[in-house]
Structures are given as structure tokens and as C-alpha cells.
Write a structure and sequence with these properties.
This protein is of the alpha+beta class. The chain has 3 domains: 114 residues, Butyryl-Coa Dehydrogenase, subunit A, domain 1 (Orthogonal Bundle), CATH 1.10.540; 108 residues, Butyryl-CoA Dehydrogenase, subunit A, domain 2 (Beta Barrel), CATH 2.40.110; 145 residues, Butyryl-CoA Dehydrogenase, subunit A, domain 3 (Up-down Bundle). It is built from 12 helices and 9 strands. Helix 8 packs parallel to helix 10. The longest helix is centred in the middle third of the chain and has 33 residues. The protein is globular, with a radius of gyration of 22 Å. The N terminus is likely disordered.
């Protein structure tokens, strides 16, 4: 048996280089899904990727994109006959263009719009769903508080008191994505009378609602995170979610959202690989392209391995979702593993670009910085590891 050797750099022009979907996972989609994913890919290539760096640097959200993004018709895709795998690859594709856009999309569609489906009444859906799905209005998810993140289940300080057909709400929320501009929030508050957690559709134009943008972020700068203050805000009973009776009801939303963050981490790795490979093929040092050096090829191979392993894990989670058997510990494992691999991959990509890896002109610096937020939000890496640890030992290390 003879061993066939690669013809070397000169063969590069004779055959296309493989894409970062090394296992051809997109082939598992049906024709309708592949067509729609190609439509999304073309949209972000034209309208997002060339401009995302400017938005990031200026900390400006691209409101002009919303009509076009809404017209793609990919809000809550599994509600409209698409597979969980398509949903995941959609998030990865958005993140591959811009992690900030993918984060906005998940907050609005996978948390706020999904909450209307999961917990809303027919009246609430009639009033809010069509505009939200088409991005004529935007939503947020207001759970985290200034002093309570991972422990908000036991430490929630925002309070709601019922007075007839109105709820009076006081408290504060922090790190609320889309919070500076959205028309509505899914607001979580503790019922003063019963001690149970309630969910409300908060109209952000109500008296007593104050929002301010969190400044000086080094990550996801396009995302408008807000501090939200609530002082004697009067929310009608008609805007309370009757399907929410305890904090456990958040698990349904957070489990799915955590899985989507795993897909976002896949997209970040694909983006890092795209940028690093293109750069090292073009950039020359010592008379040769950087791609000809062994240590550079090792970086690319490790990045591709991380992305491929992450994507393969997420495919299995998507299959579990399709069966309805996905669990919170599986979501936690997926989020923790993919974001850790992502963190390594973006660091390798940044190193491959040398000094150009620390300026936003070359995009890798933005990918590198955005990864830090993805590593932390939707359950920190440490907390997700402890959820997995609890599942495999039967012992909780969380107080």
C-alpha cells in the first residue's frame, strides 16, 4: 500500500479548501432548511459582517437592520416547522457574522418571544406576538439584579404587590440586554404576599421605569445592556403571565437559551477560524506565508478540532431536543464545554495574527473580546460545571 502525499502549497489553487463545518453537519438539514440558512448567510454577509466592527467600536446598535432581519422569517423557528438543529445552526451563523447580533436575536426571540408562547394567554399573544415576531417591537428578559446573578433564585429583591387589578413593582435589574430600547420586558419579581415568583410583560414606557446603558464594556459592545430601576411601577393584571408560578418556570426558558449559547460559541469558533486562516494564507514573514509554518498550522488544527467537537456535541443536544429528552444538566455541559473550547480557540486565533490581533481593524480582536461575555453569561462557566457535577455525583456544591 502506498502513501499519497499532499502535493503541497501549489495544490491550493487546484481544489477548494474545506470549510470549518469539517463533518458536513449542515447536510443533515432538509432542503427547506438549507435554503433558509443560505438566505440568512447571504443577508449577514451583505448587511452585517462588513459593518459590525464599526457598530462595536461605536457601541451603536443597528436599528436599521431590524426590518430586514424580521423579514427573514426565522423567529422561534421550531414553532414554524424547522428542526432544533436548524435553530442551532441559525444562531451559529449569526454569531459567525457578529456575536452581538446573535445575542440580540437570542434575547428577543429565544427568551421574550418564546415566553409569549410558553406562558402567555391568548389575549397576550394577540396583543404582542405578531409585532414581536416581525421585529416591529423588541423585547428583553429582566431576571438578573445588581446584587444577584447566579443566586437570584434565592436572593431576588424585586417585589410585586397586588392592588386590585394592578401590580405595584419596586426593585432593580442589571445586565438586561436590549434594555435601553426595547418596548417590553419579561420581568421577574417576588410576590410580597405569597413569596412566589411572578412574571410580567413590562411596558418600558410606564411611569417609574428608568433604564440606563452600562458603559465601558470590553465585550459585546453593540449589545445595549441596561440597568433598570423600577419605582412604584403599576403593571395591569392583564400583563401578568399566568403560566409562571415559581422560579422553576424559568428553567424551561433558560435550558433552551443555554443550549443556544452553546451554538453561539460554535459560531464564535467558526468566525475565529475563518479570520485566522484567511490571515495566515495572505500574511508573509521570512519570505513565506504564515500558513507554511508548523506552529501556525498547529493552531489552525486545534481551532478546527475545538469547533468540530463543539458542533458535534451540539448536534446531539439538538437531537435530544427533538425527542423532548433534553435536560438542564445536558444544557449546562454543552454551554460550559463549548465556551471553554471557544475561549481557547479565539486565543489561538488572536496569537496567529500577532500584533494585528489586538486591533479591531482585523476583526479577531472583537471576536476575542466578545468571547469573554459569552463565557460568562447565561450561567457562568463555574456554575454550569457545578450543575454537571451535581448531576453526576448526586451532591450539590452550590449553597
Amino acid at each position: 500500500m502506498s502513501l499519497q502525499h499532499d502535493a503541497g502549497p501549489s495544490s491550493r489553487a487546484e481544489r477548494p479548501l474545506p470549510g470549518p463545518d469539517f463533518l458536513d453537519i449542515e447536510a443533515q438539514l432538509d432542503e427547506r432548511e438549507r435554503t433558509k440558512l443560505a438566505e440568512v448567510r447571504a443577508f449577514v454577509a451583505e448587511h452585517v459582517a462588513p459593518h459590525a466592527g464599526q457598530w462595536w467600536t461605536a457601541e451603536q446598535f443597528p436599528f436599521h437592520l431590524l426590518p430586514g432581519l424580521g423579514a427573514l422569517g426565522v423567529s422561534t423557528p421550531t414553532r414554524h416547522g424547522y428542526s432544533h438543529l436548524f435553530h442551532g445552526l441559525l444562531i451559529a451563523e449569526l454569531a459567525r457574522a457578529d456575536a452581538s447580533l446573535a445575542t440580540f436575536f437570542m434575547i428577543h426571540h429565544d427568551l421574550f418571544v418564546e415566553s409569549l408562547y410558553d406562558f402567555g394567554t391568548e389575549d397576550q399573544r394577540a396583543r404582542y406576538l405578531a409585532d414581536a415576531a416581525a421585529l416591529r417591537t423588541t423585547g428583553a428578559f429582566a431576571l438578573t439584579e445588581p446584587d444577584h446573578g447566579s443566586d437570584v433564585a434565592k436572593g431576588m429583591e424585586t417585589r410585586a404587590r397586588r392592588e386590585g387589578e394592578t401590580w405595584v413593582v419596586n426593585g432593580a435589574k442589571r445586565w438586561i440586554g436590549n434594555g435601553t430600547f426595547c418596548e417590553h420586558m419579561l420581568l421577574w419579581a417576588l410576590d410580597e404576599d405569597t413569596g412566589t415568583v411572578r412574571g410580567f410583560i413590562l411596558d418600558t414606557s410606564l411611569p417609574g421605569v428608568t433604564t440606563s446603558r452600562i458603559e465601558n464594556k470590553i465585550s459585546l459592545r453593540t449589545v445595549q445592556n441596561a440597568d433598570v430601576r423600577l419605582q412604584d411601577v403599576r403593571i395591569p393584571e392583564a400583563d401578568r403571565f399566568p403560566g409562571i408560578e415559581s422560579f422553576a418556570d424559568t428553567n424551561q426558558l433558560l435550558r433552551s437559551s443555554r443550549i443556544m449559547v452553546g451554538w453561539l460559541a460554535v459560531g464564535q469558533q467558526l468566525a475565529a477560524f475563518d479570520v485566522a486562516r484567511a490571515y495566515v494564507l495572505e500574511r508573509e514573514q521570512f519570505g513565506r506565508p504564515l500558513a507554511a509554518f508548523q506552529l501556525i498550522q498547529q493552531k489552525l488544527a486545534t481551532m478546527l478540532g475545538n469547533a468540530t467537537a463543539s458542533m458535534a456535541l451540539m448536534v446531539q443536544v439538538a437531537h435530544a431536543q427533538a425527542r423532548g429528552t433534553e435536560r438542564m444538566d445536558q444544557a449546562a455541559l454543552a454551554k460550559a464545554f463549548t465556551t471553554e473550547r471557544m475561549r481557547e480557540s479565539v486565543a489561538l486565533g488572536r496569537a496567529a495574527l500577532g500584533g494585528n490581533g489586538i486591533v479591531t481593524d482585523h476583526r479577531m480582536a472583537r471576536i476575542f473580546s466578545d468571547a469573554e461575555a459569552v463565557y460568562t453569561y447565561e450561567g457562568t462557566h463555574d456554575v454550569n460545571q457545578l450543575i454537571v457535577g451535581r448531576a453526576v455525583t448526586g451532591i450539590s456544591a452550590i449553597a
